Amino acid sequence: MDKKYLFSPGPTMLPAEVLLKMAEPIMHHREPEFEKIFAEIREGLKYLFQTKNEVLIFTSSGTGVMEGAVSNLLSRGDKALVIRGGKFGERWGEICKAYGIEFIPIDVDWGKAVDPKQIQKALDSNPSIRAVYTQASETSTGAKHPIREIAEIVNKYEETVMVVDAITGIGVFNLPMDEWGIDVLISGSQKALMLPPGLAFVALSDKAWKFVERSNLPKFYFDFKKELKSAQKNQNSFTPAISLFVGLRESLRLIRKEGLEAVFQRHEKLAEATRASVKALGLGLYAPDSPSNAVTAVKVPEGIPGGKLKNLFFEKFGITVAGGQDQAKGKIIRIAHLGYYERLDMVMVISALEMLLKEMGYPFELGTGVKAAEEVLMR
Asked: How far apart are CA 117 and CA 30, in angstroms?
């Protein structure tokens, strides 16, 4: 029997309730039946994003609304500040470049979090900066940035907005948009929302909507003003991924039933157990000082090829974990614990890691990592 498990940081595993809803017969997106679903989704997303404002939904990957957060907020001649601490931080700079936006990078060592003082210094030195682009959780390294502290800094600048890629942050740890004064918050369906890839979400503060009003960069599909008008009518501007919307309603119901605080605590516990097991095995964390509760990046022991270890997870156990990207390729594996995961899921994946390391000649006592994880999970 072949059984498969996803422990990659997107796509992630899906609840049966969501899968069954998406298997129902398709409906038409311009009929009252769909509009009723859309209305419930709108309220569920506000709860998840912790905002009073509309959360826009696009049929795309998360990168689509990342692009929209450049083309809808900025104008020709504007400057941006980009936090580059991994593959997805670099993507902000690539999008700015595509739209002719000059950006000032803050390059952070992979596996590290940005120092908010660097942002303060950059904004003081460059008053023409109109947007600060960062990740909440840098998926490629497993590091978490200090979003609350960054927001406190950016909030002091009336002509600057803070844009947060929270694709592996929303639904994982607390990011209260309105309370912290985050101007733009982005997420995607295939992470903690427990859906297949294909939907992207973006919420904007009142301050950010003023930037949208004056933006003169080209836009068509990812037009936030147009999408806001459609959303207020419980519609999309273009044909949506209807089955994903049906699944989204169900996943938002599951999140609300569990409660946001309980969701955050569950992710914290799973991440803590994973990190404890990794340390017990004598392995290093790629982001030891500021680890994200979405994914744990594990340093591969010296002499063991990371690519081979990653592949063996699937070949031996049907488990998909992620490898490293760019400068981290072959050096780490990434084990996800965001979304539809519970305590025994982590025990299973740690057990698989132990068996593979033992087969590959890494010296340790079997059960060491599992024991450490269980001790955390039993508290």
From this structure: 49
Flag whether pLDDT at 347 surpasses 80: yes
Which sequence spans correspond to the domains of the chain? 5-10+259-377, 16-257
Domains 5-10+259-377 and 16-257 share a fold: no
Q: What is the pLDDT of residue 220?
A: 98
C-beta of residue 73 within 8 angstroms of C-beta of residue 216: no
Q: What distance, in Å, lies between the first and last C-alpha atoms of the chain?
A: 34
Other CB atoms within 10 Å distance of the CB of residue 96: 24
- 16-257 has CATH 3.30.1050.10 classification: no
Percent of the chain residues topping a pLDDT of 70: 100
Q: Which of 57, 51, 16, 87 is nearest to 251 (CA)?
A: 16
Tokens at 180, concatenated: 């912290």
How does pLDDT run across 111-125, given as a tens digit for each residue? 999 999 999 999 999
CATH placement of domain 5-10+259-377: 3.90.1150.10
pLDDT band per the 50, 70, 90 thresholds, residue 1: confident
